[in-house]
Fold:
Amino acid sequence: MHSIQKKIPENLKVISGNALRNDDFKMLENYFKTDEEIIVINEGLLRYLTFEEKRKVAQNIYELLSKYGGIWITSDVTPKKFIKSQNNALMNFNKNVNNITFRNAINDRFEDENHIKEFFGDIGFELFEIHKFNEVKDVLYSIKELDIFDDKIEQTLEDAIVVVMKVKK
Ligand SMILES: C[S@@+](CC[C@H](N)C(=O)[O-])C[C@H]1O[C@@H](n2cnc3c(N)ncnc32)[C@H](O)[C@@H]1O
Structure:
């Protein structure tokens, strides 16, 4: 067993808000210093939003990064082909998510990397790094600790990517 760090860092703040609302992003600025760059990280949100909703979230992040500088790291650019590998590995997962949330539609997915670049490029972002999940498979905590690595996991991770974006100069 690994020991769990009990001390909560003083600079960890949990703020509730709606990522679609620009005013909620403004609240965050109370916690930023004007002379420090920021990093926006998110997972598991954009893939469930329509392209119109994704655009609103991206525009809110664009506004923040334009002001403070820094980068946006997200795996929420799930391409359509990832759904196929996810369906093969996790039977019914996507169907269940659809049924429970009425979200997760295939039409809300990116076609491919070009589509991702075009969509975020239109908003003013530059994709300067694209990483495959498989790059970190050897250090994934659950896989290592539970010794559950197999071909299925490798195949599932194959089409999943993380992008790193910054505001175009
Ligand atoms: C699939 S989970 C993400 C999981 C998360 N990355 C984690 O590791 O726990 C989706 C999350 O997005 C939140 N969410 C949904 N719509 C949102 C919105 N418009 N603004 C902010 N969060 C939202 C949900 O409440 C939920 O906690």
